[in-house]
What we know:
The complex is a heterodimer.
Chain A: E1 4-5, E2 10-12, E3 22-25, E4 28-31, E5 35-38, E6 44-47, E7 59-68, E8 71-75, E9 82-85, H1 87-90, E10 111-119, E11 125-129, E12 140-143, H2 149-153, H3 158-167, E13 170-173, E14 178-182, H4 185-200, H5 207-226
Parallel strand pairs in A: 9-11
Antiparallel strand pairs in A: 1-5, 2-4, 3-4, 5-6, 7-8, 7-10, 8-9, 10-11, 12-14, 13-14
Helix pairs in contact in A: 3-5, 4-5
Chain B: E1 11-12, E2 15-16, E3 28-32, E4 40-46, E5 49-60, E6 73-80, H1 95-108, E7 120-130, H2 135-149, E8 158-166, E9 169-172, H3 176-181, E10 184-191, E11 196-200, E12 203-204, H4 208-236
Parallel strand pairs in B: 6-7
Antiparallel strand pairs in B: 1-2, 3-4, 4-5, 5-7, 8-9, 8-10, 10-11, 10-12
Helix pairs in contact in B: 1-2, 2-4
Amino acid sequence: MYKVVVPGDFISEAVSRAGEGTYVEEGKVHAARYGIVDERGEIKVVPLSGKYVPAEGDVVIGRIAEISFPFWIVDIASPYEARLHMSEFADTRDEKIEFGSLSRYLDLDDLIVAKVTNVDVMMRVDLALKEDFNLSHGGRLIEIPHTKVPRVIGRNGSMIKMLKEKCNCFIFIAKNGRIWVRGREDEMNLATEAIFKIASESHTSGLTDRVAVFLDSFRLKRAKGRR
Amino acid sequence: MKEGKEKIELIKEGKRLDGRGFDELRPIKIEVGVLKRADGSCYFELGDNKVIAAVYGPREMHPRHAQDAKMAVVKFRYNMAPFSVDDRKRPGPDRRSVEISKVSREALDPVIMREYYPKTAIDVYVEILQSDAGTRTAGINAASVALADAGIPMKDLVSSIAVGKIGGEVVLDLNAMEDNHGEADMPVAMVSRTNTITLLQMDGRLEKEEFERGLKLAMRACHQIYELQRTALIDRYSESVDVGEGEA
């Protein structure tokens, strides 16, 4: 069962185990956020809402927001914008990128999959392209709060595995809450619906089973429709 | 508050005009997450006060030069709707609302862990839809819940209420009639868990003993309000979800 806490709630006296989303005062661990307590291992409060803050190593889906030579400024669904240096492209091609021609490679509103390579104290965020993920073969972008991402993946990837199998779609989940889905139109619709269901019911238990029932009922309906 | 134009008897047979006792709050209603497009929101009713708070952010701070490299900047706007009072209120910021915005921001500031989001802005908008005295305290209560709802790291929730003096008696939570014809009005905001006062203003005059009694009254009410705020937040995520089979 899950326990919801609000900021200031007393959680435990085990100060040495205080983790993310908590603070310690007078030898006691209190909640620093509105969320769900997780006491396995470190005492954490998993927030139910909030903005994504990039960390080194995160893989994110970004949108080119601005071109400012020699960088692309990338919106990563966060209060902080990220930078992608043009050398990210020059590495793979032999041509020299001229001033003013960055948009030939990535234009405004293009989507990219990138890895956060560095976040400095001034919250400047640097990205590196991940070219093994190519979004140009079609598909659609879904956006959910980044706090729901772990739920969509599920324990040891159980939820995402089920989604992929039952919807027969390629699904890629980025750390910042953006999800890329590629598949047949009706199957993408189903996956989208299922993901939004997971996001809105992320705080409930037995979710994987319920989503399974939801997906199966759809397949049943379709099978009936064919007959 | 100065003497009213005409003397109004605010206390009759040990009860107030609306039938409340001296230490009684007006009915409170709290709803969390009422605005879909805001990052956090709260609707708060205190008697005939109807207030809505919206929180946006942390988001990029504009103008850039106002950024703080070490922490988030909290911006608070208290605004009264033109239709919130009997005589139409001229829209837009005025001396009063600028002051209330400032003191309200400072009432919430001590609990917000601003260092988590350097260079950003956290916008808090409080709209007074209907006013019946005590809107700043209602606004602070609403804003505090909305901030939590937005997932902003905070040390505590802030609760707030006013006390005052009417007809020679120290009473809790004045309504507009009592505020206009009473002798004093004193809004208080505090962190319930630690009894830390984050806002204390006074309009009118109180004896030292009356002040102490009033403060005690307000602090006790803040604890009550805190419980309501907490319950509203917790209930939002404990409503049962339909576990049915879906449609056949």
